Amino acid sequence: MSFLEPVTLTGRHVILEPLGYEHHDGLVAAARDGELWQLWYTSVPTPDGMAAEMDRRLAMQEQGSMLPFTTRLIDPATGGPGRIIGMTTYCNIDAVTPRVEIGYTWNAASVHGTGTNPDSKLLLLGHAFTTLGCVAVEFRTHWLNHQSREAIARLGAKQDGVLRSHSRTGDGVLRDTAVFSILEHEWPMVRNGLEHRLAKHA
Questions:
Q1: Could you tell me the pTM of the whole model?
Q2: What is the dihedral of CA 185, 199, 11, 3, to 10 degrees?
Q3: Rg (CA), the chain
Q4: Which CATH number fits domain 9-199: 3.30.230.10, 1.10.10.10, 3.90.1200.10, 3.40.630.30?
Q5: Cross-strand bridge partners of residue 14
Q6: 108 by DSSP, 3-state: which?
Q7: Which residues contact 161 (CB under 8 A, 6 or more apart)?
Q8: In sequence order, what are the beta bridge partners of 73?
């Protein structure tokens, strides 16, 4: 068994399922909710590019460098899986240390501010620290994406630094990448903060 095996994680508002091709149409509908691919600071696939993005993520899973999830709402009527609202991953996987990054995350515009994102982060962080035994979990974002940087800081993550001219965006522009992390001993306080935020959406 490898360090990271596909797993389904269930929270209060969302279910994270291992990414599969059966999710394609639901992911396209989620991306159309807000036309997220048009936001300059994210890398949400276009409807026509969704299959290729799924291929990319699943290929990285085969290589052991990513574990991709599809994010679903919990159906309030049944308590089971509801509509698909986005994607997230474990990436930059270091099985020796061990540590992971949570990244490549996007959710449909209509669920922003409803508790789905903190619920997803609570699931992923909890699994990383409690089950996988990670000593740190990392987050990365575009230096100019102030909204994302503020959201990561609200989690309780601390900024480690900035990787200047770190990578190129889809249009070829060099980007600076802000790197944040949460350490194992910080997890209980971060967990309490996330649970407090989720209580507001009960």
A1: 0.93
A2: -10
A3: 16
A4: 3.40.630.30
A5: 73
A6: coil
A7: 178, 179
A8: 14
